[in-house]
Amino acid sequence: MLPSPPLRLYTRAGCCLCEGLEERLRALDPPPLLELVDVDGDSALQARYGLRVPVLARAGGFIAAGAPPAGAAPAGAPPALAWVDLPPVPPRLGGERLQAWLAAHGAVAGASAPGGTPVGDGP
Question: Which of 8, 19, 58, 116 is the most exposed, fewest CB within 10 Å of its CB?
């Protein structure tokens, strides 16, 4: 079985919904590879997400660092993960239901994603 793609959780300090989602994700068996990103540490992320946290994103392939959206990768540029924001996670999902939700949105190994918004690598 292929490993699950990494997940990124956009969060902020003191956000009880963010903390709850992090706890439910870490309680899964096996727990996903999870990266926490504080949106208040970056003005662009703060502007993008505002009060919409928590936002969960999955790795959606690779993009060339610094490349224009439709352009070719600069010579020698290292690849960077592209992130796809997932729809809001229902706050009462946990355990097997959360695992099924992640699978339905392409956030666990072997699942196909129904779509999403590709985004850049961020900070």
Answer: 19
Q: How far apart are CA 123 and CA 88, in angstroms?
A: 22
Q: What gap in Å lies between CA 43 and CA 58, rounded to an integer?
A: 21
* Global pTM value: 0.74
b/e burial code for range 26-59 (CB count within 10 A of at least 16 → b): eebeeebeeeebbbeeeeebeeebeeebbbbbbb
Q: What is the pLDDT of residue 3?
A: 65
Q: Tell me the per-residue pLDDT of 19-76, one tens digit each, with 9 for 90 and over.
A: 999 999 999 999 999 999 999 999 999 999 999 999 999 987 655 544 444 444 455 5
Q: How many CB atoms lie within 10 A of CB 1?
A: 5
**CA separation (Å) from 63 to 48, 84, 110?**
20, 12, 21
Q: What is the CATH number of the domain that holds 85?
A: 3.40.30.10
DSSP state of 31: P
Q: Which domain holds residue 19?
A: 7-66+78-119
In a domain, 72, yes or no: no
